[in-house]
User: Fold this.
Amino acid sequence: MTITRFSDLALRLLMYLGSRAEPMQATVTVREVAELFNVPYTHLVKVAHQLGQQGFLITTKGVGGGLRLARPADSIRLGDILRITEPSDAVIDCVTQPCPLAGACLLKGALDSAYAAFLDTLDRYTLAEVARTPRLQKLVSIKA
Assistant:
């Protein structure tokens, strides 16, 4: 299973915020996180915007502005993040380019079931748990 770059950036951004000493009070800038993870600033802006719209982040513009978690990291499930950042829950598309096996093929059902199991597994993990990665904690302490 491969996730999109967009989802990867969303997870990294949220992990970074979740690893802060007080994640719901600590404000960071998109530029700061983009530089830390060596990712394009413009891409991360789009990610932060969507995460803000979906209620994962509070975004503030202007001097002293930035990003912070909108809710506790231990209440955010990884599966929930991917459900809003991945483009679709269908692993394969049997509609856009009609398939002659439609309705008689077991592959789509098997793949959809595997994807659901993937998300169910990610639902077992919270942002707080994955944000406790020792290397990430070290990065945060250096940047703080």
About this structure: The longest helix spans residues 107-122. The chain has one domain: 5-88+125-143.
